[in-house]
Amino acid sequence: MKKLLLAGVGLVALVAGSPANAADIAPVYKAPPPVAYSSWTGLYVGVALGAKWGDIDWTTTCLGATCPTATAFPIDASSPRNFDPTSFRAGGYVGYNWQFAPNWLVGLEADLAWADDTATTAGIVGCSVAPGFCGRFGGTATGDSASFRLLWDASIRGRVGFIPLPDVLLYATGGLAAQAVEANLACTVATSPWCAGVGAAGRRDQTLGETLTGWTVGGGLEYKWGNWVLRGEYRYSEFQNFQPTFFGGTTDVVFTDIKVRTHIATAGLAYLFNWGGPVVAKY
Fold this sequence. Notes:
By secondary structure, the protein is mainly beta. It has helices at about 1-15, 20-25, 130-135, and strands at about 35-40, 40-65, 80-85, 85-100, 105-115, 115-120, 145-165, 170-190, 205-225, 230-240, 245, 255-275, 280. The protein contains 3 helices and 13 strands.
């Protein structure tokens, strides 16, 4: 009986110690579950703060009442003149993203922003450095001035982006743009090298404005945490030429052609209404 009992215990020990049974009782490694990240797809609304600076080339094309069909007064070396108004810029933007592939994104965005800055120079552009050459003999440009002002701007643009990390977006953007501008010429009739006609209180002073259309292109970087999206963006814009005619209908008429370009650098914060569902990263 003892022999039979000892044989049974030995058999149990032999089976329990076999490799197959050791594997059965060893811990089993399991891969981590898939990690879900929120999608970039959806409507977003944001605010942006930054700066806008202009690159403005003002050319006077003709001076005098016979312009532009007949020979008029010569234009001096003060034309063309560059203006570079720089201003604080504040605005808002709204857009929609579609994420696909899953590391790519396309979207559409519109923005509207306020800015206000004026750059001014002494003298009438085209008649300020050589008074006897362009207008009356003598005179001084100290009582004359020319200025250019940048105001609000807007755009509607497409976006194409790459998502190198789940919460990081690199994008390029481009589309149509609008820019409000004003230009001013002022002169003191008694001393001006150019203005010789009769003006109110001995002055001629005229401001002309227009909303210009053009194109814009740029790019940026966005970082998303939850539904909030922080961005940094730069854009270059170029617009149709602005061609105001000052003091029209007088002997002091001035014809101009002004080329307008702007640079915009902003930081923005938006809320993404995330309707695209999660994007799952698999291992």
